[in-house]
Amino acid sequence: MTRSRLLRHLAVAFTVAMLGVAGCAQLAEKERELTFRVVPGDAGWYAGLPDGVREMDIPLAGDGAAHHIHAWWWPAAQADAPAVLYFHGSRWNLTGQLFRIRQLHDFGFSVLAVDYRGFGKSDGGVPSEQSVYEDARVAWREFVALVPNARRRIIYGHSLGGAVAVDLAAWLDRSAPDGTEPARGLVVESSFTTLADVAKALSYEWLPLELILTQKFDSVGKISAVRMPVLFVHGAADRFIPARFSQALYDAARARKRLLLVDGATHNNSMRVAPDAYRDALFALFGLSEKGETRARNAHGAS
User: Fold this and answer.
1) 24, 84, 213, 257: which one has the fewest Cβ atoms less than 10 Å from its Cβ?
2) How many domains does the chain have?
3) Is 165 in contact with 155 (CB distance < 8 Å)?
4) pTM above 0.90, yes or no
5) pLDDT averaged over the chain?
6) CB neighbours (10 Å) of residue 214?
7) Checking DSSP bridges between strand 54-59 and strand 83-87, what pairing results, if any?
């Protein structure tokens, strides 16, 4: 083969390779769009912030594309109340989460809830698995500043946010010195083992999606690294993410743990269907004080 012909072959091969890379990049972005399904603007049922909620912007240092993530801080009536760092799932921003955030506040918790970049008033474009993990760690630093006492801190994640919460808890426990706990516990509600497992459950189990998807969200591979107590909650009638995924996470967890399956609850309403059982499981597993338990019961009764 002459040199010129070889160069032409190499040029064609290079062009095909670049087109393939461009196509993969487009597919990867489409995959992220489908994973997070961000709905712009306020949720249709949102009627405004309750009294006492403070909006804040948390800077993302060293990120040229996204400068801050937006957050709500809703302190409890009691200054020494336990506090929840809240991570939501896909699709809806904070305005679509208020009903659940309000319930946690009614239980007696302070709540710091954050929108990942690309959601709500946060900066950034289409999120990714890596970017939401980074956002969670930025939110954690703000949470620690607001709640210096580790025994008052609880990490919570719903649905895809459960995978974010598991990643953060595993990272914190791996980084913490032996014998110390960065938080009192972790709550994982209506979540899953891996994103590929969910996709298979919604399509065909035989598809090798774990080899194709770039967004892994491998909670079942990380949960064994979590040392803090873990409460898994799932609606038994959840048709979007089956309750068997929380059972699998529970089985893989090595920390002190509890699984609360709520009869009649679907993907979003376990806290609403069984508020007493949910609240009691939280306080029992995490060993919260009797004073805190009384405060939670009174707050719930007044809601």
Assistant:
1) 24
2) 2
3) yes
4) no
5) 87
6) 15
7) unpaired
